[in-house]
Structures are given as structure tokens and as C-alpha cells.
Design goal:
Blueprint (H helix, E strand, L loop, with lengths): L1 H28 L6 H13 L1 H12 L1 H5 L6 H34 L4 H29 L1 H28 L4 H33 L3
Helix pairs in contact: 1-2, 1-5, 2-5, 2-6, 3-5, 3-6, 5-6, 5-8, 6-7, 6-8
Length: about 210
């Protein structure tokens, strides 16, 4: 597993370091930028999709077929991508936590509830994007998996919009709505991630090359 992780991190640094730099720039810019919500959410979405990109590099280089001849096992090959994804999401999450504190200090306003709620949303978003993208990619391959992921993201986005519109129609205030959904945002990452990993392992073990 250490060797697989090292290989993925090397690939990440050699071919995708511009994406990592972009994430840092966006997070730092969120301190002073007016459109700070986009600048804070976009890096989490970007880094959580990078494991899918690493998998695409593996497919194009023929690494997948070569790796299956080694005494590694498909479970470890799946696990390495999830581990890289968690490291990326954790790094971006910590950076977002720091920049959020700096922005609050700069504006002279700090609301603990809003701060922790935003962090919960960021963490859930990052893990959810990765958890949706990887099973489809391991099952269908990265090209077909990308199309399936777009459909899934569209469905999730539609559900979120409907939930917000329903909350407005019911007359729920933003604060009461936040208080109602903060528990699912805390529980969802812990529940979704192991299910996603189990599906990826199961589907990848059945996949034929």
C-alpha cells in the first residue's frame, strides 16, 4: 500500500501540481475576495475529483493491466485511490478552516455556528464527490464513468435545489434550516465513504480487462 500511495503521489505532483497550486490560490484569495463562497467550495470539488484523474492516467499508461500481474490485489489498488483522495480532501479542508478564521478576523465578525456549519458542508461535499466518482470509474472505466458521474451530480444537484426551494416555501429561516441539516452533514461523510469503498472493491473485482 505504501508503494502504491507513493506512486500516486508522484503522479499527482508530476502531472497535476498545477491543480494543487490553483486550490491554494483560490483558498487564499477567498480571504479578500467578494465571491469567497465559490473560492472556498471549488477547491474541495477539484481535489476530490483528482483520484478519478489519477485512475485515468493509470488506464492510459497501461498501469492497471500491469498492476494486476503483481501480488497486490485489486482491493489495495482501490484503497490507494481512496487514501490519496482523503489526503487531498483533508489538506484542502484544513486550509479552508484556516482561511475562514483569517477572513473572520479580517472582517471583525466571527459566528461559531456559521463557521462550523460551513466546514461541515465543505467536508461533506469533498467526500461525497469522491465517493460518487470512484465507484463508477472502477466499474465502467474513467471515460464511461465520467458520463455516469455527470448524471449522478445532476441528480444530486436537483435534489439539493428542491430541498432549498421546499424550505423557502415552508417558511423556514436560514438559521432554522441550518440547524436542521447540520446533523446529516456531520453523519453523511462517515456513512457514504465506506459504502463507496465497498462498491468500488466489489465492482473492480468483477471487472474484466
Amino acid at each position: 500500500m505504501k508503494a502504491l500511495l507513493y506512486k500516486d503521489l508522484l503522479t499527482l505532483w508530476k502531472y497535476l501540481k498545477s491543480y494543487l497550486l490553483m486550490c491554494v490560490v483560490f483558498q487564499v484569495a477567498s480571504i479578500a475576495g467578494e465571491d469567497f463562497e465559490f473560492m472556498r467550495f471549488y477547491p474541495l470539488i477539484l481535489v476530490s475529483s483528482l483520484p478519478h484523474t489519477l485512475l485515468a492516467y493509470d488506464e492510459r499508461s497501461g498501469w492497471e493491466k500491469y498492476a494486476l500481474t503483481l501480488p497486490l490485489g485489486r482491493k489495495k489498488l482501490v484503497g490507494s485511490k481512496y487514501l490519496v483522495g482523503l489526503l487531498l480532501v483533508a489538506g484542502s479542508f484544513l486550509l479552508a478552516a484556516v482561511t475562514g478564521l483569517v477572513r473572520s478576523w479580517r472582517e471583525g465578525i466571527f459566528d461559531p455556528f456559521d463557521y462550523w456549519f460551513e466546514l461541515c458542508v465543505l467536508l461533506t461535499l469533498g467526500i461525497s464527490v469522491m465517493s460518487v466518482a470512484l465507484p463508477m470509474s472502477f466499474r465502467l472505466g474513467t471515460e464511461k464513468g465520467r458520463i455516469a458521474n455527470m448524471v449522478c451530480y445532476g441528480i444530486l444537484g436537483g435534489v439539493l435545489v428542491i430541498a432549498v426551494l421546499l424550505g423557502d416555501k415552508l417558511g423556514l429561516s436560514q438559521i432554522s434550516l441550518n440547524e436542521w441539516v447540520i446533523v446529516p452533514f456531520l453523519v453523511l461523510p462517515a456513512a457514504v465513504l465506506p459504502i463507496s469503498w465497498a462498491l468500488s472493491v466489489r465492482w473492480y473485482e468483477k471487472r474484466e480487462f
